[in-house]
């Protein structure tokens, strides 16, 4: 016999799995520090690639002037400035990634607690039926 409450619960759970659960369930498979570390490392790699591309575009934009000025400039000071800009950019992006990953992880865990509670309730409904 059909149990209307169980059908409603299963429908709500299927809707969660199809929509929000696609993003939340993979996050729930990680420990907190592992998830956050993974996101921060991905961001550091992406920021390094982005910084390299931006620097290459900056040099390529006026390559002739750069080559003319390279003999006049203090190369050590230029490299120090470049490294400081790189470190500032990467650290800023990593800090933002840490904050966002922490927020997303906490949100996912809270959402999954409700989902797992619904699973336990559904399991109890099946046990009571038997």
List the topology elements.
Elements: H1 4-18, H2 21-28, H3 32-61, H4 63-69, H5 75-129
Helix pairs in contact: 1-5, 2-5, 3-5
Backbone CA Rg: 26 Å
Cα shape: rod-shaped
Structural class: mainly alpha
**Count of domain modules:** 1
The major pleated sheet works out as:
none
Percent in strands: under 5%
- Sequence of secondary-structure elements: HHHHH
Mean pLDDT: 91
Number of helical segments with 4 or more residues:
5
Taking the alpha carbons of the first and last residues, their distance comes to 12 Å
- The percent range for helix content is over 70%
Low-confidence stretches: none
The total strand number stands at 0
Description:
The protein is an all-alpha fold. The chain has one domain (32-129). Helix content is 88%, strand content 0%. It has 5 helices and no strands. It has helices at 4-18, 21-28, 32-61, 63-69, 75-129. Helix 1 (4-18) runs antiparallel to helix 5 (75-129), helix 2 (21-28) crosses helix 5 (75-129) and helix 3 (32-61) runs antiparallel to helix 5. The radius of gyration is 26 Å and the shape is rod-shaped. It starts with a helix and ends with a helix. The model has no long low-confidence stretch (mean pLDDT 91).
Would you kindly provide a brief summary of this structure?
By secondary structure, this protein is mostly helical. The protein has five helices and no strands.
